[in-house]
Amino acid sequence: MELASYADRAVQLVNTADPYRHRDTLTSCEQAKELLxxxxxxxVTNADVAELRVIRDRLREIFDAAEAGRVPRAVQILNSLxxxxxxxxxxxxHDESSYHLHLAEGAPNIAAVYGAKAALGLxxxxxxxxxxxxxxxxxxPCREVFIDTSTNRSRRYCSDRCATRANVAAYRxxxxxxxxxxxxxxxxxxxxxxxxxxxxxxxxxxxxTRTW
Length: 212
Ligand SMILES: [Zn+2]
Ligand SMILES: [Zn+2]
Prior knowledge:
The structure is a single chain. The chain is mainly alpha-helical. The chain has 2 domains: 3-155, Jann2411-like domain (Jann2411-like fold); 159-207. It has helices at residues 7-14, 29-35, 46-67, 71-84, 110-129, 160-211; strands spanning 17-18, 23-24, 90-92, 100-102, 134-136, 145-147. The chain has a two-stranded antiparallel ribbon with strand order 1-2. Helix 1 crosses helix 3 (46-67) and helix 4 (71-84) packs antiparallel against helix 5 (110-129). The longest helix is centred in the last third of the chain and has 52 residues, at 160-211. One zinc ion (ZN) is lined by residues 137, 139, 142, 144, 157-159, 162.
């Protein structure tokens, strides 16, 4: 497994919360088990859920800081996470499995294992691709995060769904603006026509007064 692929763990964890739409899919052990499925069979406690939620907030801060161009701040949080959740690799063949690598052997709980892998993966990706590749979705109110692996650094949305939604919204806004411009022009025309009518009307009236 490529170390960079562990960055997906960071993205998945952050996106369990949608702070601007008050959605949170990491509130129970059952939900945590779903998130932790790639870690294999494991015991999940309420303490793990609580710890994962704290890790989630700090990972979110990294993406937000990177998005705002505050890279030193992003680096600072990332380094503190890696210090708290260190990598301790060991090759093992426990339970008659084939030899495989454990990255955070001896971590106190499964949340810590997840935190270690997520932070490491994010660090690998951010240093290889650049911190500007850590993105936050631009299709408001969505604030889901992503890592931009596109060749031209052009990704702005978390998903195709959000890209479509943003494109439709932009199209509607353009149409509305266009309609407003046309409407304003028509109204101005009508107004000047009316004024013209009034002017000629008054003159005609004046003329007729004179005739009478
Ligand atoms: Zn194992
Ligand atoms: Zn989105």
